[in-house]
């Protein structure tokens, strides 16, 4: 039995973001993130569910797969107040939506452990082997320049200063310069062997977030050497994408552009800078021997770079799944056309 619950679809952007921030939510539950994903193959629902004074929020993304769908809750649900009645009420609403959209499964990826309280095993939820968003991150506390430098590892601090001694300059680029950043990102993706979205994806991201998004460039002798795309939400700035030119890496432009990003975040009132994605553990991959710990190997090289800035590690609870059609889910696991 499900006790009485109140379901409300929130359609006001300011109200939704106020609710999300008050519940400890972050970027992927923000109104503009939902609007952004709607431009790229998703449909967005924003719900507030109340049961016996317990309150849960969820921005749910719907991805159509032929006549079926996948429901995905990125960095959610968010639990404002927990009561014993809330898990069943939340489950009841999710099941209704799953039937309405013919979902083969629902995937939830909570921001906090509190989100797991409305995803209990006894109602069919279980940990998923899928990793959609990074499972761990590093969050750098923001302070004055002295604090930022002192919390860095010595090698990182040295490389930041070296970049500027060698003549690297940084600036906040116009959003209209996205083509330059994208060309650099394509070079980086080819070098490091990862996939990237089409340019419209990045253009839309900058357009929708406006002044809360920054394109930061590090240049050497007038040539673009490194870039970063950063978005602000609440008291946090998030480093979403970065790129660098292979031939200019010796001048340390990636360190200079991160220094510029830290200062941009601080100037926009942020308390934290999220470096967005590190390996699941601090241990190097087994194929990396002691003599080659500095080379790129999966996310290991990225982790060594990011960890130099002195961030605090944060581990997310991980993806939880509610499978409604095991046969179709098994097929989808092989194809996985999610693009989250």
Task: Provide the gyration radius in Å.
Answer: 21 Å
**CATH topology value of the largest domain:** Aminopeptidase
Number of helices: 10
Query: Fraction of residues in helices?
Result: 25-40%
- Proportion of strand residues: 25-35%
CATH class membership of the largest domain = Alpha Beta
CATH homologous superfamily of the largest domain, by name?
Gcn5-related N-acetyltransferase (GNAT)
The unreliable regions are 289-296
The number of strands is: 15
What string gives the helices and strands in order?
EHHEEEEHEEEHHEHHEEEHEHEEH
Task: Give the CA-CA distance, first to last residue.
Answer: 34 Å
- Taking all residues together, what is the mean pLDDT? 93
- If classified by CATH, what would the architecture of the largest domain be? 3-Layer(aba) Sandwich
Overall outline: elongated
Structural class: alpha+beta
In short:
This protein has helices at residues 13-22, 31-38, 86-100, 145-150, 154-165, 178-192, 199-209, 253-267, 300-307, 326-335; strands at 6-9, 43-51, 54-65, 68-74, 78-81, 103-109, 126-127, 136-141, 169-173, 213-220, 223-233, 236-244, 272-274, 312-315, 320-323. It is α+β, with helices and mostly antiparallel strands and 340 residues long.
Structure description:
With 340 residues, the protein is of the alpha+beta class. The chain has 2 domains: 146 residues, Gcn5-related N-acetyltransferase (GNAT) (Aminopeptidase); 180 residues, Aminopeptidase (3-Layer(aba) Sandwich), CATH 3.40.630. Strands 1, 2, 3, 4, 5, 6, 7 and 15 form an 8-stranded mixed beta sheet that branches. A 7-stranded mixed beta sheet has the order 9-10-11-12-13-8-14, with helices on both faces. β11 and β12 form a beta hairpin. α2 runs antiparallel to α7. The longest helix is centred in the first third of the chain and has 15 residues. The chain is elongated, with a radius of gyration of 21 Å. The two termini are 34 Å apart. About 2% of the residues have low confidence.
